[in-house]
Amino acid sequence: MEKSVINFLKEIVIEAGKIIKENFNKSNTVHYKGKIDLVTEIDIKVEEFIKKRLETIEGDFNIVAEESFDGNLPDDKVILLDPIDGTTNFVHGFPFVAISLALIDKDYECGIVYNPILDEIFTAESGKGAYLNGERIFVSKTDNLEKSLIATGFPYSSVVENIDKLLKLLSNVLKNTRGIRRAGSAALDLCYVAKGVFDGYYESNLKPWDVAAGKIVVKEAGGEVLNIEGESYTFSDKFIIATNKFITKDLLRLLNGV
Predict the structure, then answer these.
(1) Active-site entry in 43, 47, 67, 82
(2) What integer pLDDT is reported at residue 106 of this predicted model?
(3) Other Cβ atoms closer than 10 A to 30
(4) Contact of 83 with 67, CB cutoff 8 Å
(5) Residues 156 and 248 sit within 8 Å (Cβ to Cβ)
(6) Does 237 participate in catalysis according to the annotation?
(7) Which tens digits make up the pLDDT trace of 107-162?
(8) Residue 57 confidence (pLDDT)
(9) Where is coiled-coil annotated (predicted)?
(10) Known binding-site residue numbers for Mg(2+)
(11) Domain identity same for 29 and 110
(12) Which parts of the chain have pLDDT scores under 70?
């Protein structure tokens, strides 16, 4: 299965991307899962399209998708899907949106993150490296935190509840790095660490489908993905940190307020 599964998934994702591209910068019906947590009919349409196509994949895989998640997250033989990571960006016509799809099967895993607006498709699979539009990519070699560019995101549930803590963290990072970028898509933030654009990334309160594919891409590009304790990140962790490995120790110290 490993030889063909990523190409099979890639074809599905590219097809689904056409739905996003055709409806970008158009008036779409918006629903609210939370005060600022949006979902559109295009999210649902893309998810349904991909899930239908995935019915033909070999093996008994559990599909975990954002808009139809039932609360059950299997440990293995699972496909994690975010139909539009960056829905708010999509609604406002900001072209930082992506389909995020990851497959995990025992020791094999692969991830695909596709931005159909910018025509960027990131792919990675176990032990075979990470690629952008078919070209191999690697993390940056920046080893000085003061010269690093860091990405982050603001969790929907914490913007109001923990605003003081969020601002303090931002202040600490701003004072000790070259800058912070907040583009609104965790999947693409991770891929831009893999691409060497960002030297590091951190965020909290994310869901497995937000980061599953991007995590694979970062690791296969030579980076690492950790929790706030500096241990290997798992989906049960509240905090995620991705780096090029060179600034890990300093970024962890900064985020822990040391």
Answers:
(1) 82
(2) 84
(3) 15
(4) yes
(5) no
(6) no
(7) 899 999 999 999 999 999 999 999 999 999 999 999 999 999 999 998 765 455 67
(8) 82
(9) none
(10) 66, 82, 84-85, 210
(11) yes
(12) 1-3, 27-39, 58, 67-72, 156-161, 258
Query: Annotated binding site, which residues?
Result: 66, 82, 84-85, 210
Residue 98, both tokens: 């992506």
Could you list the residue range(s) of the whole structural domain that residue 217 is in?
A: 145-255
The pTM (predicted TM-score) of the whole model is 0.92
Spot the catalytic one: 43, 66, 203, 220: 66
Question: Could you tell me the two tokens for 111?
Answer: 């991830």
Q: Which of 67, 109, 125, 210 is catalytic?
A: 210
Per-residue confidence (pLDDT) for residue 36, from 0 to 100: 42
The token pair that represents 87 in the structure block: 């829905």
> How far is 253 from 258, CA to CA, in rounded Å?
5
Same domain, 104 and 151: no
Q: Is 250 a catalytic residue?
A: no
210 labelled catalytic: yes
The enclosing domain of 109 has a CATH number of 3.30.540.10
Comparing C-alpha atoms, which of 20, 24, 61 is closest to residue 44? 20
Q: Give the per-residue pLDDT at 58.
A: 66
- 66 catalytic? Reply is yes
